[in-house]
Amino acid sequence: MLHKTRAIILHQIQYNDRYAIVHVYTEAFGPVAYLTAATKTKTSRVPKALLHPLSIVELEVEHHNLREIQRIKEAKACMTLPAILSHPVKTAVSMFMAELISKFVKEQQPDQALFDFLLQSIRILELSEKSFANFHLVFLMKLSRFLGFYPDVSAYRRGMFFDMQNGVFIAHKPAHHHFLNPDDSAAFVQLLRMDYENMSHFRFSGKERKAFISRAIEYYQIHLSHFQEIKSVEILHEVFG
Questions:
Q1: How does pLDDT run across 153-195, given as a tens digit for each residue?
Q2: What is the C-alpha separation between 139 and 9, in angstroms, rounded?
Q3: Rg of the chain's alpha carbons, rounded to an integer?
Q4: Are 112 and 29 in contact (CB under 8 A)?
Q5: Are 153 and 101 in a shared domain?
Q6: Same-domain check for residues 117 and 223
Q7: Range of the domain at 50
Q8: 6 with 75, same domain?
Q9: Which residues are 25's β-sheet partners?
Q10: 105-160 pLDDT, tens digit each
Q11: Given CB 3.0 to 4.6 Å as the disulfide criterion, which of 51, 78, 178, 187 pairs with 56?
Q12: How far apart are CA 141 and CA 51, in angstroms?
């Protein structure tokens, strides 16, 4: 049976000489791996140009619950992303986002709110004309809302410690070692106050931005046992100094 669904392309790997496996996050089924032709053919209805990271597509697919790898019958673009493909900074950010999404959606069920957030984030990255040097930081923290561990800042006061294990700010140093000291906690609160609308107003050095992303990824690793290294972080460090 054929189904139609919007999807976000995450990455693809070569399966053999004839086929590649494309990993996507779909609106209807959650994460899915699809088999597609590795090279362009006369009969292919899946344009290779659509299969770049974060490409937003409409798919017509076969879907069988017991199959590990499904098949794409046809793919069409839902939105073109010329800026993400041509702007080196946006390209680096998109690679980071796609890798990050790939890390946590493996076990996810379909989630409309999450899919809408990802779609909105990709569109904002594509259309943003102001400084977007902080975009990946905003994305990292906003994404944690959908994973159930967004930090609780309601009780924060200057001088508090951030308990990374419990996701709360507290007055005294916790007994475990997963925490930020008061100065780092104050900087972390600044990160949490950013959103896509105001991110261009925050100015950080490359060193500060590197420290922010390091702490944020550490926070993810504490709360997601399967969360591994993000290789594209090094590219971001090079791009943003």
A1: 999 999 999 999 999 999 999 999 999 999 999 999 999 999 9
A2: 17
A3: 19
A4: no
A5: yes
A6: yes
A7: 2-79
A8: yes
A9: 8, 31
A10: 876 789 999 999 999 999 999 999 878 889 999 999 999 999 999 999 999 999 99
A11: 78
A12: 27
